[in-house]
Amino acid sequence: MKSWKSLQTLLASFVMVTVVTACGGNAGSTPAASNTAEGSANSGSASGDVKITLLNSKGEIQTQLEDAAKAFKEDYPNITLEIIPVPAGQSPFEKASALYAANSPSTITMLDTGDVEKFKDRILDLSGEKWMSDKVDGSTDLTTFDGKNYAFPLSIEGYGFIYNKAVLDKAVGGSFDPATITTTQALEDLFKKTEASGTGALIVSPMDWSLGAHYLPLAYAGQSADKAVVNQFIADLKAGSVDLSSNTVFNGLMDTFDIMKEHNIDKASPLAGTYERGPEVLGKGEVGIWFQGNWAWPQISSFDTASGAYGFLPVPISNNPDDFGNTQISAAVSKRLVLDKEKSTPEQQSAAKAFLEWMVYQEKGQDFLINKANIVPAFNNITLEPKDPLAKSIQAYIAGGKIQESMSALPADHWSKLGASMQKYLAGAADRATLAKEIQDYWPTVK
Amino acid sequence: MISEKGLWSRLWLRLLFTGPTLFAFATVMIVPFLYGIYLTFTNWDGISTTSTMVGFENYAHVWKDAVFWKSFYLTLKYVVISVALVNVVAFLLAYFLSSGLRGQSFFRAGFFIPNLVGGIVLGFVWQFIFSNVLVSIGQKSGIALFGTSWLAEPDKAFFALIIVTVWQYAGYMMVIYVAGLMNVPKDIMEAASIDGATAFRKLRTMILPLMVPSFIVCVFLSLQRTFMVYDLNLTLTKGGPFKSTEMVSMHVYEKAFLSRDYGVGQAEALVLFLLVAGITLLQVYFSKKLEVEA
Q: Which of A208, A216, A340, A422 would best serve as a mutation to test chain B binding (most B beta carbons within 10 A)?
């Protein structure tokens, strides 16, 4: 009986203790309280072994990153790098903020450009790093706040019309020269020639992110080669003082879109297509052109029938070949790496910095970036040539100065909301006036 | 035995048995719920280290958010149609599979199985059926109805959601109705047979009134499940085409995590909770009055 009593007391006090500690833990997770950088030394033992984590939001390079972690360990035997994937369908912002809310952020987090600013109170200032002197011009502009750069530019990505050279060679009856497509008219002629040669002209993939985050922003970025004018245009959109229906660039871009709609092989049911269908029909040579970016190369290559002859065409916005945008493709740094400063120990932070430097300056790191992960790097010191034709095409455009900077810092729900408006237009459920109005109505609601 | 002990030892004993459950319930339900209510009064964006109190501003936003009320109306439409269909189909299945059909246990199991498949997997499977299988059947056989993907047109996508919902839940509700049918007293049915009542007469004046408790449970369950639909919505249509099938849960989620407007999203979630709680309580309250004693 006595022992039963003491067992009761023990259990009850256990319950009490867990309740009390749980409450304490919860209080610590409120946004205000976690401001204090506690930096608990939860890893990193006396022997100098450091364990760091990287939250990977670029699902297609998960295995390559895991291999890179092994290669990195060969050079730095005391650092263990673990790669955490962001589950398919979840946004990197959502996963990263969930990890922060749980007080267990990854040491290195891979974010989209527009998200970096939100994290700036919780991440390290990287302005003093060695690679800052070798980065491509302008690659850290969007992650620099109050003169401090907070993020490592991981990859440059570009998009435009991807063409299958074998199909277009047949269409033009000779060797297709991408430099001939600089006007809307030339593009339409090319579509007609392709159709006349017995193949589909192009496929328009109806994903909201493709239409909302890639196609439509060409209307913003194409306003001028001068970044300040583009920024002013966005500011005017937010203020509600832009009349899109009379905007030349917007109308020119939508004229091109009308032609794309007209020659789309999925014209009968334009919203039924999926992302997976795009690389298949392009790779197999059922169409000549697909509007997409260089990230699609692994999928295209698995269907390739043109022995790797692919490249980018700009999206023309007028019939004057000299207009800005008619010879440029859209490209920008898309993924950024940021380092946590709240929960990581100084050892972990320096280990993470070592990893960033390893990618830029070490042979194995460069090999991972360019040869394994097919990344177009944002650093001038890297001289390795990419193997994939789309990355090569982007580098050729960069080398020729034919780049228009992608709008990589748009509001977080831009792709979803205006992507839906573009889908409506694509399906013929809305006309251009409605589309223009929906875009104009969206911007003033952005905080 | 328990009453012989003092107040404290009784409390200890209670805590021993209910403590773990109470603890779990408090930490995963009560605390987050209260913390969530607190967040509705802030302008927190989900990550920043600071946030300010904004009073009832978020609730004013909910009131003005036309898209929220549009998706709420759409959800209401979806709930009414699918609750009606789920329960009618489930009752008919239960009625026919309790009438002594050959192999009825096998059929019961068959209709119940969709409920064992998670909403996510189920959505993906049906997405494939709607956009590939049916389309290829339609194109080969020339049936115009299936010529193009149902998921690419707003109205058809809406009905695709309803069809899958009915398919998913009817089997589960059927099991509850089967149990209800078993509980209809045999002696009353026998007496009715002796009096010469037809099968339809028996169904209308004996079985249906006696099964009101089963209906209350099933309507409650299907109401609550369809109101909160998210997984199926996400995997089958992703709210598309062009947001025309975006149900209210999905809108709330996107408000909080996509638009980075956590405060407003949380306020919308609370408004939704109150509306759904209100509707289901009213349903239970009024249908309780229909109950009869055998």
A: A208
Among the residues of A163-313, which ranges form H helices?
165-172, 184-196, 208-209, 218-221, 227-239, 248-263, 277-283, 297-301
Close Cβ partners of B85 (under 8 Å, ≥ 6 residues apart): B162, B166
For residue A97, the distance in angstroms to the closest alpha carbon of chain B comes to: 6
* Terminal alpha carbon distance of chain A: 66
Q: Do A412 and B259 touch (CB under 8 A)?
A: yes
Over residues B280-286, the mean pLDDT reads 89
pLDDT of residue A26: 38
Q: Which tokens go with B139?
A: 């194109």
Cβ-based contacts of B45 with chain A (< 8 Å): 118
A329-339 and A152-164 beta bridge pairing: antiparallel
Decide: residue A216, CB within 10 A, 0-12 exposed, 13-18 middle, 19+ buried: buried
| Secondary structure (3-state) at A214 | helix
Q: Kindly state the DSSP code that residue A32 receives in the 8-state scheme.
A: T
Please provide residue A55's backbone torsions phi and psi, each rounded to the nearest 5 degrees: -85, 110
Predicted pLDDT at A425:
92
Backbone angles phi, psi at A157, to 5 degrees: -125, 145
Place of tokens 């036309």: B66
The stretch B167-190 carries a mean pLDDT of 89
Say if residues A134 and A363 touch (Cβ distance below 8 Å).
no
